[in-house]
Amino acid sequence: MQAKEKWLTRFHFPTAIGVTDCMHVRIEKPAQFRDEYINRKGFSSITVQTTCDQNCVITSIDASWPGSVHDSRIWKNSAVCEVMNRTRNTILLGDSGYGIMSCLMTPYPNLLEEYQIAFNRLLKSERVVIEHTFRQLKRRFPIQNYGCRLKFTSIPKVIIVSLYLLLYLSKAFPCKEKVEIINTNCSKTFYFYLLPFT
């Protein structure tokens, strides 16, 4: 079954295959570039962009950005955005922290018409899967919620492993999926993908 058909078994948004959002993982202030890691809520963090499907199965994660970086910048520089831009008639759902694109549907900013209100209501009700995924992660791995007090270069690896364990423990995906860690030699960027989005 194609990803769009799977989405429609549970939700109603046509051509959608999943949802994307960012969360903050609290960290201690790093020795270098301390201000870059202070997020809009006032604490030091790493911003983690995640995508998931209709069953809360994580399909990608990028745990490489400082807390001060805006969601839309992370999206525009992500490998997922690049893949989605090459994929026609397929979208992800995002919140108002992202800008609308041909591959990313976001809510109307100013609600003037009844159809805009209905659209935003539908989008919000379907985006709940990513929020549910984040709640599961933070409940099962409190280090994601209360702070990661490890060597700074190890934090992205811990985030990746936590998400991988969440998938394994919930038995949310079949073992046939392709899983790869990209750029493991680089101390800054780590990706976890269950691609392709088919």
From TrEMBL:
Cross-referenced InterPro entries, in alphabetical order?
Answer: HARBI1-like, HARBI1_dom
According to its UniProt record, where is this protein mainly located? Answer: nucleus
Question: Quick check: keyword RNA-binding in the entry?
Answer: no
GO CC annotation terms, alphabetical? nucleus
Q: Where in the cell is it found?
A: Nucleus
So where does this one cross the membrane?
none
The organism's place on the tree of life at top rank: Eukaryota
Query: What keywords appear on the UniProt entry?
Result: Hydrolase, Metal-binding, Nuclease, Nucleus
Query: Which cofactor is recorded for it?
Result: a divalent metal cation
Q: Name one Pfam family in it.
A: DDE_Tnp_4
What is the similarity comment for this entry? Belongs to the HARBI1 family.
According to UniProt, the name of this protein is Nuclease HARBI1
Q: Encoded by which gene?
A: LOC115879497
